[in-house]
C-alpha cells in the first residue's frame, strides 16, 4: 500500500502491486513497424487496453482443399507472475506443457512473482523456462550495450540458476532487426514477437492465421496479440479452430490468470475451459501442444555477458540527459535515457516540443482521457545505463521545471539488485503553472537494499504536462541528523584478529566504511561479547581519546551478551573497545546508523558526548527500593544544555536482591507500560536507553521488584529541543508498547514477525527509523533475534542473543521499511516471545 507523503493525505490510488510501470501499449505488429520507421508520439490506454472489433468475414473458415498437418499450439506465459502457477498445475494435469518467459530480475522479487524454486519446479514438470530480459525493459529505447546486458545477462542468470534456456520473448514485443541480432548472439535459438497473426483484434483481419512451420524468421516468430480481459472463450478457441485447415504454429500469450484487477487477465474459468478444449483437440489428433523449445529445437548454447554499465554518476546531478537535448536510439522518439510509462486506465500521447525551459527540447505528455493511474516520461528501468545509482539510507533532492494544466507530483521507483523494480513513494502535489515553474522535493531515506532509482513528474488527470531540466542530487545532511542503514557487521574478532586480550583494546573503522562518510559525529551499533574466558566489562569510546569511567556491556565467563551502543567516533573515523577483564573475549559490532558531523542546532539533532557517569547509587550507598524510583539530572549538567528533548545513556543494574525490571521515563510524567532492562537476582545487566527528558531536565528510573537494586547511568549524548522538522532528526515519545506476543502466539523457530511502527501511536508514516527496547521472554532454546527493515533481506547481524528460559532486553535502532514496518527474525530451533517498547522515531 502506498504511504502518503509527510503531512499529506493519500492523494491517489497506488500503482499496481507488481510495482513497475508500463509503456504505452500497442499490438506487437504496429509497435515494431513504428520502431522501424520512427515515431514521434504514442497512445496508451492503461497498461494493456487494446482497440477491439469482431473477427470479420475475411477470416471465415473455408473448406480445406487437402488435409494439413495438425496445428502446433504453444501456451506461453510472460513475466513470472505467481498466479500462473495454478494455471500451470491445471494445464499439466491435462497433459499439456507450456513456455514461461521469466525476467531474471523478477524472480524472488515479492509474493506476486515466482521464486526460483517455483520456476525450477515448473521446469521439472516438463515446462520450459525462457528469457524475457533482466528488468523487462523496452529494448528499442536502449542503446546496444544496455540491450546486450538485458538479453545476455538475463540468459546467464537463468542458466546459472539451473534453467535450460533456449527461447526468448521481447518485452512489450519491442524489437528491431539489431535487437533480433543481439538475441541470436546471446545464445538464444528463437525470440517471440506479438501481433502478427489474425485474431478478433481490429487491424489484424488480413494477417496469416498461423505462423509457418518452421518459422521464416526464428528471431521474430509471429503470434497473435497478447490476451487481455476482453477476450472471450470463443475468441481463444477461434485462434486454433481457424488455423486448423491450413496448419502451422499458434502461440498463445498469457500474463495473469484469475486476477480480475489486472487488464492483461483471463479468468480461471475461461483458461481452464481453453485447456479442456485444447486437450480434447490434441486427443482427436487435430493439434499438437508443444513448448517453444520443442518447436524450434537446437542445442543449448553458451554466451558471454554484456558489457559493464558505465560508471555511475556519484556527485552533482545524477540524471543523465536531464534537459532532453540528446536524441534517443529511435529517430524522432523519446530522448536518450528516457522512456514513456504509466499505469491504470488512461489515454495519453508524449512528444518532444521545442518550447523548453532551456535549450531546444522539452517533453510533453497529453492525457486526453482519464479514469485512473498516471502517465509520464522517466529514466528507464535498466541495469545501470541511465538510472541513477543510489545509497540506502541517503535522502535525495529532486527538481524539475514544468508547465501544467493540472496538478502534478514526483513519483519514485527503486531497484533492488540488478533487476527488481518497485514503486516507492510520491511527493506532495505541485499546482498548475502556465509558465515554467520549478518543482522541488527531498525524498525519504532510500530503502534498505535499493541500488538505483528513477523518478518523474506525472500527469494523473486529463491535461497537458511539459517538463524540462531534471535534477537529482544527494540531499544535504544537517549536523546531528541520524542516517539509518541496514545493519552491517564492521567487527568480528572471531574471524579477524582473534579475541581481545586481558585489559586489551580493539578498534574498528566506521568513517569511510560501508558507505558511511569519512567524517561522522557518532555511530550506533550492537555490541556482542562471546566466548569470554573470565568476567569483565567493555567500554566503547572515540578512538584517540581518553578511556572514560563508564561501561557499555558487562559479562560473565562463557556468556554471549549483547548491548546497543551509541558513541562518538574518533578523528580517524574509528571506535575503540576496551575489555576490562583478566581473560580474553571475542567482540562483534553490527552498525545500524550514524550521526552527521557538525554543530547540531536543529530540534531533534543529536550531540554526542564522551561517555560520562551521571548516576551511580553505589557511591551513595543507597540502592533503589522495591517499587521505588530515582531521578538524575541531565539538562544543565556536565555541559548539556538546560533544555534538551531526550538523552541516550547506558543503564546498568548491579547487586539486585531479587528479580525485576527497570523502566526509564521523563521526570514528572506517569510511569509507562514499558521496560528497559530486565534482571535476575545478583545479575549485573546493562542496556542502552533513549528516553525523553522531563521539564525539570531529569530522567526517572523505576525499579519494579520486591528487592533493591543499584542503578548506574553513563550518558553518551542528547537530542536538541525544539520543533522537529528536518530529515534525520529524532522525536522522542513516551515509551509505548508496540508489540507483545505474550498476548498471542510466540515467534516460531526461525520465524519472522512484522512490527508496524509507521502510522501507529502518532509515529508518522514517513518516519525513516525508530528506537525501541526489544525484550526476549520465555525462549525454549538458545538463539538470537535480528531486527531489520521490512522488505529487505535478513542481514548478517544480531540484536539480542539469548539462552533458553532467559529474559533478555536490548535497545534497537533500525530503519523502517517502505511499509513502515520492522521485521524481527528469531534464529533459533525453539520459540520465543518478543516485546517491543518504542521510545521515539527519526524523520
The counted number of beta strands is 44
Under the CATH scheme, which architecture of the largest domain would be assigned?
Alpha-Beta Barrel
Under CATH, the topology of the largest domain can be stated as TIM Barrel
How would you characterize the largest beta sheet? 6 strands, antiparallel
Number of domains: 5
Would you summarize the structure shown here?
By secondary structure, this protein is mainly beta.
Keywords, separated by commas or semicolons:
843 residues, mainly beta, Jelly Rolls, signal, 44 strands, 5 domains, 37% strand, Polysaccharide deacetylase
What does this structure look like?
- The structure is a single chain.
- By secondary structure, the chain is mostly beta strands.
- It folds into five domains: 71-296, TIM Barrel (Alpha-Beta Barrel); 339-474, Galactose-binding domain-like (Jelly Rolls); 482-596, Jelly Rolls (Sandwich), CATH 2.60.120; 606-720, Jelly Rolls (Sandwich), CATH 2.60.120; 730-842, Sandwich (Jelly Rolls), CATH 2.60.120.
- The protein is 11% helix and 37% strand.
- It is built from nine helices and 44 strands.
- The strands form twelve sheets. Strands 1-12-13-20-15-18 form a six-stranded antiparallel sheet, with no helix packed on it. Strands 2, 3, 4, 7 and 10 form a five-stranded parallel sheet that branches. The protein has a four-stranded antiparallel sheet with strand order 21-28-23-26, with no helix packed on it.
- Strand 5 (167-169), helix 5 and strand 6 form a beta-alpha-beta unit.
- Helix 4 (144-160) runs parallel beside helix 5 (177-185) and helix 6 packs parallel to helix 7.
- It is elongated and about 100 Å long.
- This is Polysaccharide deacetylase.
Amino acid at each position: 500500500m502506498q504511504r502518503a507523503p509527510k503531512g499529506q493525505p493519500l492523494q491517489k490510488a497506488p500503482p499496481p502491486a507488481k510495482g513497475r510501470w508500463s509503456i504505452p501499449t500497442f499490438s506487437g505488429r504496429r509497435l515494431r513497424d513504428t520502431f522501424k520507421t520512427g515515431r514521434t508520439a504514442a497512445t496508451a490506454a492503461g497498461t494493456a487496453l487494446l482497440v477491439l472489433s469482431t473477427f470479420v468475414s475475411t477470416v471465415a473458415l473455408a473448406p480445406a482443399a487437402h488435409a494439413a498437418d495438425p496445428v502446433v499450439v504453444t501456451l506461453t506465459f510472460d513475466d513470472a507472475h505467481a498466479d500462473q502457477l495454478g494455471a500451470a498445475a491445471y494445464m499439466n494435469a491435462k497433459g499439456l506443457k507450456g513456455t514461461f518467459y521469466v525476467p531474471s530480475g523478477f524472480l524472488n522479487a515479492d509474493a506476486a512473482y515466482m521464486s526460483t524454486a517455483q520456476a525450477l519446479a515448473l521446469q521439472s514438470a516438463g515446462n520450459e523456462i525462457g528469457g524475457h530480459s533482466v528488468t523487462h525493459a523496452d529494448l528499442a529505447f536502449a542503446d546496444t550495450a544496455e540491450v546486450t546486458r538485458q538479453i545476455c545477462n538475463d540468459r546467464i542468470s537463468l542458466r546459472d540458476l539451473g534453467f535450460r534456456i533456449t527461447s526468448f520473448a521481447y518485452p512489450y514485443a519491442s524489437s528491431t532487426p539489431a535487437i533480433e541480432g543481439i538475441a541470436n548472439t546471446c545464445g538464444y535459438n528463437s525470440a517471440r514477437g506479438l501481433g502478427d497473426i489474425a485474431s478478433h483484434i481490429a487491424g489484424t483481419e488480413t494477417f496469416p492465421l498461423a505462423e509457418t512451420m518452421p518459422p521464416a524468421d526464428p528471431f521474430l516468430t509471429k503470434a497473435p496479440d497478447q490476451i487481455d480481459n476482453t477476450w472471450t472463450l470463443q475468441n481463444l478457441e477461434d485462434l486454433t479452430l481457424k488455423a486448423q485447415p491450413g496448419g502451422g504454429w499458434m502461440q498463445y500469450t498469457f500474463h495473469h490468470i484469475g486476477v480480475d484487477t489486472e487488464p492483461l487477465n483471463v479468468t480461471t474459468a475461461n483458461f481452464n475451459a481453453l485447456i479442456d478444449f485444447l486437450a480434447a483437440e490434441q486427443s482427436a489428433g487435430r493439434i499438437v501442444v508443444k513448448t517453444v523449445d520443442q518447436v524450434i529445437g537446437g542445442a543449448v548454447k553458451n554466451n558471454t555477458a554484456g558489457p559493464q554499465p558505465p560508471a555511475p554518476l556519484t556527485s552533482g546531478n545524477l540524471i543523465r540527459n536531464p534537459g532532453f537535448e540528446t536524441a534517443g536510439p529511435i529517430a524522432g522518439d523519446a530522448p536518450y535515457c528516457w522512456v514513456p510509462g504509466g499505469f491504470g486506465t488512461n489515454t495519453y500521447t508524449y512528444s518532444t516540443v521545442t518550447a523548453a525551459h532551456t535549450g531546444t527540447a522539452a517533453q510533453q505528455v497529453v492525457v486526453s482521457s482519464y479514469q485512473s493511474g498516471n502517465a509520464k516520461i522517466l529514466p528507464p528501468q535498466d541495469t545501470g545505463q541511465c538510472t541513477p545509482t543510489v545509497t540506502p539510507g541517503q535522502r535525495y533532492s529532486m527538481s524539475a521545471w514544468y508547465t501544467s494544466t493540472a496538478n502534478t507530483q514526483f513519483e519514485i521507483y527503486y531497484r533492488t539488485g540488478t533487476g527488481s523494480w518497485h514503486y516507492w513513494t510520491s511527493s506532495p502535489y505541485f499546482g498548475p503553472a502556465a509558465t515554467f515553474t520549478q518543482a522541488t522535493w527531498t525524498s525519504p531515506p532510500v530503502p534498505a537494499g535499493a541500488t538505483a532509482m528513477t523518478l518523474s513528474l506525472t500527469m494523473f488527470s486529463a491535461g497537458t504536462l511539459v517538463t524540462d531540466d531534471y535534477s537529482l542530487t544527494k540531499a544535504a545532511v544537517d549536523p546531528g541528523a541520524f542516517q539509518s542503514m541496514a545493519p552491517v557487521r564492521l567487527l568480528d574478532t572471531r574471524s579477524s584478529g582473534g579475541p581481545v586480550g586481558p585489559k586489551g583494546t580493539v578498534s574498528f573503522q566506521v568513517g569511510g566504511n560501508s558507505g558511511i562518510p569519512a567524517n561522522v559525529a557518532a555511530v550506533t551499533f550492537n555490541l556482542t561479547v562471546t566466548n569470554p574466558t573470565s568476567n569483565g566489562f567493555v567500554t566503547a569510546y572515540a578512538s584517540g581519546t581518553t578511556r572514560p569511567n563508564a561501561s557499555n556491556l558487562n559479562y560473565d565467563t562463557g556468556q554471549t551478551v549483547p548491548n546497543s551502543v551509541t558513541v562518538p567516533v574518533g578523528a580517524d573515523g574509528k571506535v575503540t573497545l576496551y575489555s576490562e577483564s583478566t581473560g580474553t573475549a571475542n567482540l562483534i559490532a553490527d552498525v545500524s546508523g550514524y550521526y552527521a558531523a557538525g554543530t547540531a542546532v536543529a530540534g531533534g539533532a543529536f550531540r554526542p558526548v564522551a561517555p560520562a557517569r551521571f548516576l551511580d547509587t553505589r557511591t551513595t550507598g543507597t540502592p533503589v527500593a522495591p517499587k521505588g524510583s530515582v531521578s538524575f539530572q541531565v539538562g544543565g549538567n556536565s555541559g548539556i544544555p538546560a533544555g534538551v528533548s531526550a538523552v541516550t545513556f547506558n543503564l546498568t543494574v548491579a547487586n539486585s536482591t531479587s528479580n525485576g525490571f527497570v523502566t526509564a521515563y521523563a521526570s514528572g510524567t506517569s510511569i509507562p507500560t514499558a521496560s528497559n532492562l530486565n534482571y535476575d537476582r545478583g545479575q549485573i545487566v546493562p542496556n542502552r536507553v533513549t528516553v525523553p527528558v522531563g521539564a525539570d531536565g531529569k530522567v526517572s528510573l523505576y525499579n519494579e521488584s520486591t528487592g533493591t537494586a543499584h542503578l548506574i547511568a553513563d550518558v553518551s549524548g542528547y537530542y536538541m529541543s525544539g520543533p522537529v522538522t528536518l530529515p534525520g532528526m529524532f522525536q522522542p515519545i513516551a515509551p509505548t508498547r508496540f508489540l507483545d506476543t505474550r498476548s498471542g502466539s510466540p515467534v516460531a523457530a526461525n520465524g519472522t514477525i512484522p512490527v508496524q511502527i509507521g502510522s501507529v501511536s502518532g509515529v508518522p508514516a514517513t518516519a525513516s527509523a525508530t528506537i525501541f527496547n526489544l525484550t526476549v521472554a520465555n525462549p525454549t532454546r538458545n538463539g538470537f533475534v535480528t531486527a531489520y527493515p521490512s522488505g529487505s533481506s535478513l542481514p548478517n547481524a544480531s540484536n539480542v542473543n539469548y539462552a533458553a528460559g532467559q529474559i533478555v532486553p536490548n535497545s534497537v535502532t533500525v530503519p523502517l521499511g517502505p511499509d513502515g514496518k520492522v521485521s524481527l527474525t528469531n534464529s533459533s530451533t525453539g520459540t520465543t516471545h518478543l516485546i517491543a517498547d518504542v521510545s521515539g522515531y527519526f524523520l
